[in-house]
Amino acid sequence: MSHSGLLQQLIQGFCCLPGVGPKSAQRMAFHLLQRDKQGARYLAETLLDAVERMGHCSRCRTLTEKPLCSICEDRSRDHSQLCIVETPADVYAVDQATVFKGFFFVLHGHLSPLDGIGPEELGLQQLESLLVAGSIVELILATNTTVEGEATAHYIGEMARKRSIRTTRIAQGVPLGGELEYIDSGTMSHAFSGRKEI
Fold it and tell me: How far is it, in rounded angstroms, from Cα 145 to Cα 168?
């Protein structure tokens, strides 16, 4: 039986989510339409609201609906530590799973010359401005442990070294080739407590 019209559009809409194939998308669509129309309305309204109102924090570049995110607005956090991550999902993963109470900087990717992603696309000029400001004592590199993530960490580490800023890299417990948003909280906590100087 082939589906057309709105039902097929809804199924295709769910397929855009990571890890959701046609069968899972079909189950989600039927569930919402048959058993949870109120949940479907809430999901649709919230998604539209988020798409319209969410932007990037002017300081750390994570997702927020205000000029500064709640982490950057928090005066109790440690201004001397800055954690570099690849995505806003990584900010969430690190903040939820560790005792880290410093600030973040989101690259929105990693260096990849073959894909046309260089320092400018990652906002490294803005990062350089934060390093020049002088309040950062430790830079924690929490990029993914992929080849690109390691190259990005090395590049940023050299930027910090020129300014004599202590630079550490999370290592223990994060598998080679792993991505932070998929790491469990125990592993993430262990990785942060066991970070090393680079």
Answer: 14
